[in-house]
């Protein structure tokens, strides 16, 4: 008598993996059904592994998007810092403090850009290296986002300092 594999697999699905393992261990399945039960368990393991890899891939793609966003934020912060530096340079005669703030903002923005680029590289390499660095790329992206926010704040402070220094030097 031949075994209807699909029907048998349907029965195994209804039982669940734990019950099937218990039945195999207790010898319930004879020599005809045992290979099919083992094949079904192997397929269940493969499905779980595929789902796990799919979740890892989704997280890594999300980390890559976060790293790209952080890179864009850092670049915007750097540009704002450069503009603040330009304003500070035009008010240089009366605003040494403004120049220092702008330089500091430039350094912070450059660091944020470097961190964002590093996060981007980590995220890209994690996609190519068997998806092992998911947590590292997420952490790097978060760090890059923080650095970009700090750089944006520093650039805003620098711009305010430059504006204040312009008003200080303008006679009433």
**Averaged pLDDT, please?**
85
Query: Can you write the helix and strand succession as a string?
Result: HHHHH
Distance between the termini: 106 Å
Annotation, overall tally of beta strands? 0
Largest sheet at a glance?
none
Radius of gyration: 30 Å
- Protein structure class: mainly alpha
Helical run tally: 5
Classify the helix fraction into a percent range: over 70%
What is the number of domains? Answer: 1
| Principal-axes shape call | rod-shaped
Strand coverage percent: under 5%
Low-confidence stretches: none
Please tell me about this protein's structure:
There is one protein chain. This protein has one domain (5-169). The protein is rod-shaped, with a radius of gyration of 30 Å. It contains 5 helices and no strands. The chain has helices at 5-15, 17-25, 34-90, 96-128, 134-169. It is an all-alpha fold and 172 residues long. The model has no long low-confidence stretch (mean pLDDT 85).
Structure described in brief:
This protein is an all-alpha fold and 172 residues long.
SSE topology sketch:
Layout: H1 5-15, H2 17-25, H3 34-90, H4 96-128, H5 134-169
Helix pairs in contact: 2-3, 3-4, 3-5, 4-5
Salient structural properties:
172 residues, mainly alpha, single chain
